[in-house]
Amino acid sequence: MSETTVRLTELSAKVTTVVDIVMFVDSVLFMISCILSYISLRSIYVSQSLERWADMVFLAGLVLMVFGSFLLAWEFGKHDLQNTKPGLVSHIAQPNSPLR
Description:
By secondary structure, this protein is an all-alpha fold. The protein has one domain (2-93). The chain is built from four helices and no strands. It has helices spanning 2-7, 13-42, 47-78, 88-93. Helix 2 packs antiparallel against helix 3 (47-78). It is elongated and about 55 Å long. The protein starts with a helix and ends in a 7-residue tail after the last helix.
């Protein structure tokens, strides 16, 4: 999913690759958090410990998502949308675009 959304811009291959990796790790962290949370709901003996771990992993995922969002926003702000490679973003940004 992140590859599709980030690769549409094609602004900078270096930053989009970093954002792709950050979003992949982020989705893995959210999945681990969901699994830990589910196990803590079903378990009687270790529920408090797993619940604490699920919360910490979830918060780490949120922090990583904010970091990735800032990287992507910084990359958008660094480039002029009029001069990007042909694609969805540059097509919409052109004044004579049929999508306007």
